[in-house]
């Protein structure tokens, strides 16, 4: 799948314009703070219907304007379609396909999928569990609208239950009603995450081995926030009842998939506490590489669009190789500051130059 | 240029209505000002009278102009079945089917802890009273199929199942006459779960 053309109006520093993209590697060049990342963000928003950087649309439209719009033409094997994202001071952000507002990503054949890798993702290893849950929900979860709707539902149930815990002395019957719903959504999420992590673990291990050579293997393991002995909704509710006094005292729900994590280890060493800077980069890249491959499998061989921002600096030989392998498949948008070297063997399809919010196509 | 006070006040009042933004309020206000005074008076009277003559039915809590309401007083209705809904407009929706012959109970909302709405803010105690009076064999829970509506239904089931009343939840699934491929994922999943032998 690929983005054939993208257009924008008042999107950050990109004032108004558009550009045709190559089906292979699009190299986006230009000095820092000129708008390279904004172009990647725009593609990510067409895919997900929201920004990977902010929830506040007023930060997105160009200063002095009161709204923005992005337009994209997407080509999949099943056909082409147009998608758009727009928001303004009067109109909340919405995602449109063929001019009709919908929820982004719900229809697999009418959606754009993307995998983004940028410097923030080094936190995948050293950051808190929330970063890794985001990886499960946002990278892997985009293959399953059903999973995403379970997550949305779970979040709403959880917020309601927590509000109830904090709001004085809720009756047992009232908490039971929320527990039953939390259990149902929670079990669906646990099953899906178990399956996703089991699927990407060998892919991440393979990718890590290709980059890190003789190092011990990368182990990726799902750590559930639901006790292991819980096997059905009745168990889940029983576990919640057992914790009820603690939950009431703390005013939060202390059990459930909102406390999940993904354990990362290199051999027997916990990567979170013991990985070097270089190893962290390699692990993060391996996870993204695995997500890209898994999404491709889930989508019957159609590759998601790969968005790589500021990944060319600090590459050792192994990661350079890994990156070259990753870039070999499907459409890629890759940013680089002038004079940064590309990994050997990366075929550049189109060179774009971004300067002062203006995007131009360079002669090949 | 400032608007004359009465017009500005009219727009302000209209803009308080649900679904009416400043633009629509302006359009409605100018429309009203163009009408002849008699038709505007009819509209105003209809609003004032509707408000003055409606109250809640002391039995089912639906909006009514006479207490108990027409449905609760009707001898043709089956008093052993009560269908529980969130809003008066849900009663109208079910009545339009012409298929339901039992009685109703309107909760006036759903349990929503995030908005501070607990069972005590809803007409649940009144429902309990009706069950205590006996004669009710089935309670059909028809709250909305969202997180709050489901929680409300589960809560009511827990309250009243022990009392020996049959408690049911309306089914969810595909809309009749709809296209399968237009159904959203969760509706399809629920429809699959609720499949039946034919």
Shape of chain B: globular
CATH topology descriptor of the domain at 1-113 and 305-364 in chain A = Rossmann fold
Number of distinct beta strands of chain A: 15
Assign a percent range to the helix content of chain B: 40-55%
What integer is the average pLDDT of chain A?
92
N-to-C CA distance of chain A: 23 Å
Helices and strands of chain A, in order, run as EEEHEEEEEHHHHEHHEEHHEHEEE
Structural classification of chain A: alpha/beta
CATH superfamily caption of the domain at 1-113 and 305-364 in chain A: P-loop containing nucleotide triphosphate hydrolases
The percent range for helix content of chain A is 40-55%
CATH-defined architecture of the largest domain in chain B: 3-Layer(aba) Sandwich
What is the radius of gyration of chain B? 21 Å
Mean pLDDT of chain B: 91
The tally of helices of chain A reads 10
Order of adjacent strands in the largest pleated sheet of chain A? 2-1-4-5-6-7
Contiguous uncertain segments of 5+ residues of chain B: none
């Amino acid at each position: 799948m690929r983005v054939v053309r993208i257009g924008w109006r008042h999107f950050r520093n990109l004032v108004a314009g558009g550009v045709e993209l190559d089906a292979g590697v699009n190299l986006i060049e230009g000095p820092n703070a000129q708008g390279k990342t904004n172009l990647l963000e725009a593609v990510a928003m067409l895919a997900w219907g929201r920004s990977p950087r902010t929830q506040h649309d007023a930060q997105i439209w160009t200063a002095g304007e009161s709204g923005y719009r992005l337009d994209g033409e997407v080509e999949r094997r099943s056909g082409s379609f147009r998608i758009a994202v727009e928001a303004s001071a009067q109109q909340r952000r919405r995602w449109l396909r063929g001019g009709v507002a919908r929820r982004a990503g719900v229809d697999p054949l009418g959606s754009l999928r993307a995998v983004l890798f940028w410097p923030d993702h080094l936190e995948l290893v050293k950051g808190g569990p929330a970063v890794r849950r985001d990886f499960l929900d946002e990278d892997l979860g985009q293959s399953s609208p059903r999973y995403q709707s379970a997550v949305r539902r779970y979040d709403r149930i959880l917020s309601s239950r927590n509000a109830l815990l904090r709001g004085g002395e809720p009756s047992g019957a009232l908490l039971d009603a929320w527990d039953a719903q939390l259990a149902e959504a929670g079990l669906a999420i646990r099953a899906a995450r178990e399956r996703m992590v089991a699927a990407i673990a060998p892919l991440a291990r393979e990718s890590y081995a290709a980059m890190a050579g003789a190092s011990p293997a990368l182990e990726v393991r799902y750590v559930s926030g639901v006790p292991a002995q819980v096997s059905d909704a009745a168990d889940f509710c029983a576990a919640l009842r057992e914790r009820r006094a603690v939950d009431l005292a703390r005013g939060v729900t202390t059990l459930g998939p909102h406390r999940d994590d993904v354990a990362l280890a290199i051999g027997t060493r916990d990567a979170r506490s013991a990985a070097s800077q270089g190893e962290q980069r390699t692990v993060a890249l391996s996870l993204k590489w695995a997500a890209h491959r898994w999404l491709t499998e889930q989508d019957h061989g159609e590759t998601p669009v790969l968005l790589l921002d500021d990944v060319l600096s600090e590459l050792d030989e192994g990661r350079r190789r890994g990156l070259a392998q990753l870039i070999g498949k499907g459409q890629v948008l890759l940013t680089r500051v002038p004079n940064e070297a590309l990994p050997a063997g990366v075929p550049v399809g189109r060179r774009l130059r971004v300067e002062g919010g203006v995007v131009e196509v360079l002669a090949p | 240029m400032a608007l004359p006070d009465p017009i500005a006040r009219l727009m302000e009042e209209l803009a308080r209505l649900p679904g009416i933004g400043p633009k629509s309020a302006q359009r409605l206000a100018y429309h009203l000002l163009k009408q002849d005074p008699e038709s505007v008076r009819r509209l105003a009277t209809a609003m004032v009278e509707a408000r003055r003559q409606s109250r809640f039915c002391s039995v089912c809590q639906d909006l009514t102009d006479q207490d108990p309401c027409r449905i609760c007083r009707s001898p043709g209705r089956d008093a052993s079945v009560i269908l529980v809904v969130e809003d008066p407009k849900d009663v109208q929706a079910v009545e339009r089917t012409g298929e339901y012959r039992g009685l109703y109970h309107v909760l006036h909302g759903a349990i929503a802890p995030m908005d501070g709405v607990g069972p005590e803010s809803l007409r649940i105690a009144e429902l309990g009273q009706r069950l205590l009076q006996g004669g009710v064999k089935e309670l059909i829970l028809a709250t909305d199929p969202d997180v709050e509506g489901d929680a409300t239904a589960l809560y009511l089931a827990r309250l009243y199942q022990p009392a020996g009343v049959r408690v049911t939840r309306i089914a969810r699934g595909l809309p009749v006459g709809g296209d399968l491929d237009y159904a959203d994922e969760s509706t399809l999943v629920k429809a699959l779960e609720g499949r039946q032998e034919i």
